[in-house]
Write a structure and sequence with these properties.
The protein is of the alpha/beta class and 337 residues long. It contains 11 helices and 12 strands. Strands 3-2-1-4-9-6-10 form a 7-stranded mixed β-sheet, with helices on both faces. A 3-stranded mixed β-sheet has the order 5-12-11. The protein has a two-stranded antiparallel ribbon with strand order 7-8. Helix 5 packs parallel to helix 8. The longest helix has 34 residues, at 2-35. It is globular, with a radius of gyration of 23 Å.
Length: 337
Amino acid sequence: MPKIINTILSIIVLLFVSSAIAEVEREMNMNKQINKAPIMFATFAESEEQVEHVFILAESIRQFGGAVKDAPIYPYIGDYSDVDIEKAEERLRDLNVTVQSSSAPKEALWFYYAGKVYASAVAEKEAEKQASVLVWMDDDTIFLDEPSELLLPTDISFGYRPVMHNRSGTLYGTEPGPFWSRIYELLNVDYNKLFPMTTPADNQKIYAYFNAGLLVVRPEAGVLRAWVKDFEKLYKDSVLAGMCQENVEHRIFLHQTALVGAAMNKLKQNEMTELSDKYNYPLFFEQMFGAVHEFGSIEGITTLRYDIYFRNPDPDWAEKLKGSSEKVEWLKKYLNR
């Protein structure tokens, strides 16, 4: 009998200790979450022009970010580029921006925007320690209002916008061509299970194809780190490499196609949300690349993208731009350079 009593007491003690440990772990995790910033912004640069864009991006967050205007900002600079990181740090110091470096395999750099993919994974790993939400965006982004949609609901791990227009996607309900068929095969994606989205510039209904210029993630979900792995599967494939040799658009957008696998294989659709068209607004897109309607108003816009437009803008672009005079003047100040 004493042995049975001792055994029972041991089990009770073990259960008590296990429960106490679990409670401590829960409290530690809660404290970690409490100590995290609600949001962290990160971007990528591999040229002096892009560093200047990062400066404007950071200025816009500090000016118009509202409740998140003081959030951490991390630009990652490719260590293979000619950018002077010390000068970049000096340029951005007053905006409390933390400049970091990132690397990418030499063989990947033949593909456009490869450096951005690798930098995003580094940013996601850093954000996991620092923030509940990471906003990974292109350097040509400008904030014009408090980005409340970027503070994802607790049950959402991925916020996205569709690609701007259908230059390489597959129309919903049609069979994918050789390029996308190979991508789906390599990434183990069943395109019949992909949900549709509509491109903002040409109103094309296509299979899920996420814009790599604005991605909002919960870092622990690991979508951006999966992006690197899936991109590597694609660019190392000889069949796709041959297609990219023959068609420059495939080479330009291969990095972006890899997001389909990363997101769809990591998450369920109900863990994703499409951001409203107030985000990633493609300013003057119709003038650069063509569109079915104009993108010349910033009224109600939260974030915009300007791509290469200000390399050779219309002299009277500001007069044509519709929206708040205060914000138009701000854009003139920073983009008329």
